[in-house]
Amino acid sequence: MNKQLELFNGSDYRPIRDDSRLEAQRERILNLMIDGEGRTLREIADATNDPEASISAQLRHLRKPKFGSYTVNKCYLGSGLYKYSVGFKAIQINQ
Prior knowledge:
Elements: H1 15-33, H2 41-48, H3 52-62, E1 71-78, E2 81-87
Helix pairs in contact: 1-3, 2-3
């Protein structure tokens, strides 16, 4: 298997089986979160019907260059609960 062609990763990851599902999941989460509003994993799960663990992984993926280099902010609310928001990464323009 060619690692360079794999979009995602993990011990159970199989590109043929998983890529379309994971890509659709990432798009659902991004489409919800791109408004910059803060949401908990539970709120994102309620809106997208995706599992919280998958949402957490997809938010990490959004930070990667191959998925857009988005800024994913995390704000601690207390008792182990966080609120997440997504924005565009600032781009440095050299003149």
